[in-house]
Amino acid sequence: AGNSKSSKSTAVPPGPPMYLDLVYIPNHSNSKNVDVEFFKRVRSSYYVVSGNDSAAEEPSRVVLDSLLEGKAQWDSNMQVTLIPTHDSKVMREWYQDTHEKQQDLNIMVLASSSTVVMQDESFPACKIEL
């Protein structure tokens, strides 16, 4: 009788945190696979946020907000850099709406200002030194 199950499944089960240098947020930053628990457990200096499909809600505002909520529960204020692979409306709005909280949590969002041209294809680039 005292057994209650949550209707929402957690992408990452509770447990001790893992510290990584670089993490690609899974499934184009879709909220079906990433939640607050993910960011509480998977702690990284750099997170790559992909997704450029507003119809599929990728990247998801819920995932971006989960980063803020999860990072707020870390026991340190280490620098975190968010690397978006696309300039999306969701990312721009989230950045503007939460900029003060990002600063409080020591989160920096990179702009895609550098471009690489390779074999007649161009794409944004970012240099990361680990």
Features of the shown structure:
130 residues; alpha/beta; 4-stranded parallel sheet; two-stranded antiparallel sheet; 6 strands; disordered N terminus
Structure description:
By secondary structure, the protein is α/β, with parallel strands linked by helices. It has one domain (18-112). It is built from 4 helices and 6 strands. The strands form 2 sheets. It has a 4-stranded parallel β-sheet. A two-stranded antiparallel ribbon has the order 5-6. The chain is globular. Residues 1-7 have low confidence and may be disordered. One of its GO terms (biological process) is dendrite development. One of its GO terms (molecular function) is microtubule binding. It comes from Zosterops hypoxanthus.
| Number of beta-strand segments | 6
Report how far apart the termini are: 50 Å
What's the shape?
globular
Helical content, roughly?
A: 25-40%
How many whole angstroms does the radius of gyration measure? Answer: 16 Å
Query: Which segments are poorly predicted (pLDDT under 50) over 5 or more consecutive residues?
Result: 1-7
Mean pLDDT: 81
In spatial order, strands of the major sheet run 1-2-3-4
Instruction: Tell me the number of structural domains.
Output: 1
H and E string: EHHEHEHEEE
Estimate what percentage of residues fall within beta strands. Answer: 25-35%
Major sheet size, sense and barrel closure: 4 strands, parallel
Given the structure, what is the number of helices?
4
- Helix/strand-derived category reads alpha/beta
